[in-house]
Design goal:
Strand order of the largest sheet: 1-2-3-7-6
Order of helices and strands: HHHEHHEHEEEHHEHEH
Helix content: 40-55%
Largest sheet: 5 strands, parallel
Structural class: alpha/beta
Number of helices: 10
CATH class: Alpha Beta
Bound molecules: thiamine diphosphate, magnesium ion
Low-confidence stretches: none
Number of strands: 7
CATH superfamily: Thiamin diphosphate (ThDP)-binding fold, Pyr/PP domains
Strand content: 5-15%
Number of domains: 1
Oligomer: single chain
Radius of gyration: 18 Å
Mean pLDDT: 97
Distance between the termini: 20 Å
Length: 287
Amino acid sequence: MSFIPPHTIKELELKANEARMLVVDMLEDAGSGHTAGPLGIADIFTALYFHSAKHDVHNPDWEERDRIILSNGHIVPIRYAVMALAGYFPIEELKTLRKFGSRLQGHPERSKIFALETTSGPLGSGLSQAAGIAYAGRMDNKKFTTFCLMSDGEMQTGNIWEAAMFAGKNRLSNLIGIIDRNNIQINGMTEDVMPIEPLKDKWESFNWHVIEVNGNNIEEVVYAIDTARAIYEKPIMIIAHTIPGKGIKEIEFDYTWHGKPPTKEEEQKFLKELRTLRGKIESTHHD
Ligand SMILES: Cc1ncc(C[n+]2csc(CCOP(=O)(O)OP(=O)(O)O)c2C)c(N)n1
Ligand SMILES: [Mg+2]
């Protein structure tokens, strides 16, 4: 397993913080959208785009690129923010989120941005797409990895488990799923709406290798992806335990923030909180 220098982790943490600030800003501008999910999964998207995934901003169609499939399309603001920071489009374009005619719709559309692998929004379909892409990649003898980001709410959909069976049967070790286990969905806590536990046991029984991590700890996320790449003859599921709304105390753990944007006043307050957090990260000494 590769060693990640502490200063690299710090850089990633700062990047995730910056992406969170962009998310708060763009959602307030849009006046609608999802806040809790994007903030919670910021560290994972940052780890992928700035460290773990193979991709080339100057050649988005590069055949050997890792495929990043976003199944729970509603959390796309964080993907847009991280992609903008990585140079896929101008930061100013984030202001057009959800605007008529914009490339940056509330749910991602591949026809508008080719650097996205799929269009998504209807929950539960991403893993089937990802499993098909991974299967085709193996048939073509390609070395890329297919990542599929999913939400815990999606675990309640039937299509996920068909894909789980398919990938397990075909030993798709080039497929790495990541579940945002944030415990919330649109109208409550997952275990109240429709329990999905024991989640690890479920995936293992479908012949997947399961890794559980703190999804808000970038170092853990990076090492988990490293480990996943070394697993032989099984698809891998990373269950990432995250805090919905991570970084902003008022939003953390509160499912009512699933699908509402901050007001102008809240935006200012939240940005201040994230700036304080940035100061803390900057002053942390990693030896
Ligand atoms: C097939 C389908 N049914 C319903 C919806 C509406 N919907 C959008 S997000 C969501 C909640 C899903 O839970 P989760 O993704 O875990 O929410 P989060 O953690 O982001 O708050 C629902 C029901 C949808 N997008 N697709
Ligand atoms: Mg959720």
